[in-house]
Amino acid sequence: MDRLEAMSLFVAAVEAGSLSAAGRRFGIPLATVSRKVSDLERHLKTRLLNRSTRQLTLTDAGHTYLAACRRILDEVGEAERAAAGEYSAPTGELIITAPIVFGRLHVLPVVTGFLAAYPDVAIRLMLADRITQLTEEHIDLAVRIGELPDSSLVATRIGSIRRVVCASPAYLAEHGMPETPRDLAAHNCITFEGLTAPAAWTFATGKTELAVPIRSRLRVNTAEAAVDAAIAGVGLTRVLSYQITAAVRAGTLCTVLEAFEPQPWPVSLVHAGQGLLPVKLRAFVDFAAPRLKKRLMQATWQA
Question: Which domain of life is it from (predicted)?
Fold first, then answer.
């Protein structure tokens, strides 16, 4: 019995939810997967999985063995990458994640430059407005916007971004310029569910924060839609500063209430940093950090 193969099939079955899904992942028949997992159970003299026609569930022994399998397979993979030269020269695949708009505007141009400089490295860029789990999702590097919770992750700060309120000049000419956050009660607002709660926006007043109820005339779920609606004159919206740089410079949007903006959010490159760091990851961090820092500085404007 090939125990590493059996372990891999066992882990895949648990992660995919079925033996047949594990078989599809590895390109082998369901009967073969079932036999190899059963052989593994006979070798261990214990049941790892409770099988039914609808789902797989782990036994108590299966839970313990699953964690051990993942650790062993990760160590084997790291040893193979070291033997293949991944720790002596930039080679192999990097999996990187970033927020959708920031990734498209800033990370993708840096990635294309890196690929040109390092022809032996391939990159899978995942753009998503959610907090990804680096270890569980096998992600090498994440671009994170916001304060980072205490963890074992290693972070390289590359700048900061503001949370800004903006509107079109035409809207402000018709409805007036808000002077304080409380003035928002008299204004139409466009809320972006991915950034703040639709019912209220938070502002800084001295050393304290003030949550101001707002009247949402339009609710959207992407920053691009919020920005487009603001340019069209629907009302005021709150987004992140880099999302409206081009519109501000073009004169199609104006920021308001700058004196009441909350503290800027840091932007960081984050990786697990456990064990020996692959040269491909170190090369990307060294390549991307100064370039992203420069792009963030160029994306700012004076309020």
Answer: Bacteria
Domains of the chain, with CATH numbers? 3-83 (1.10.10.10), 92-161+265-298 (3.40.190.10), 163-260 (3.40.190.10)
Own/partner contacts of 276-280, CB < 8 Å, gap of 24 or more, are 276/78, 276/82, 276/87, 278/81, 278/86, 278/87, 278/92, 278/140, 279/86, 279/87, 279/88, 279/89, 279/90, 279/91, 280/86, 280/90, 280/91, 280/92, 280/94, 280/118, 280/121
Which run of H or E residues covers position 229? helix 223-231
Q: What is the mean pLDDT of residues 216-227?
A: 90
Rg (CA), the chain: 25
The per-residue pLDDT for range 80-103, each reduced to its tens digit, is 766 666 555 678 899 999 998 899
> What does the angle CA 182 – CA 184 – CA 185 come to, to the nearest 5 degrees?
85
Show Cβ contacts of residue 277 under 8 Å, excluding neighbours closer than 6 positions. Answer: 271
Average of pLDDT values for 180-206? 83
Range with the poorest average pLDDT among 90-104, 168-182, 209-223, 265-279 = 265-279
Which of left, alpha, beta for 51 (phi over 0: left; psi -120 to 50: alpha)? beta
Residues 6+ apart with CB under 8 A from 54: none
Distance CA(39)–CA(41), nearest Å, equals 5
What global pTM score does this model have? 0.64
The pair phi, psi for residue 167, each rounded to 5°, is -160, 170
Q: What is the DSSP letter of 106?
A: I
Strand 254-256 to 163-167 pairing: antiparallel
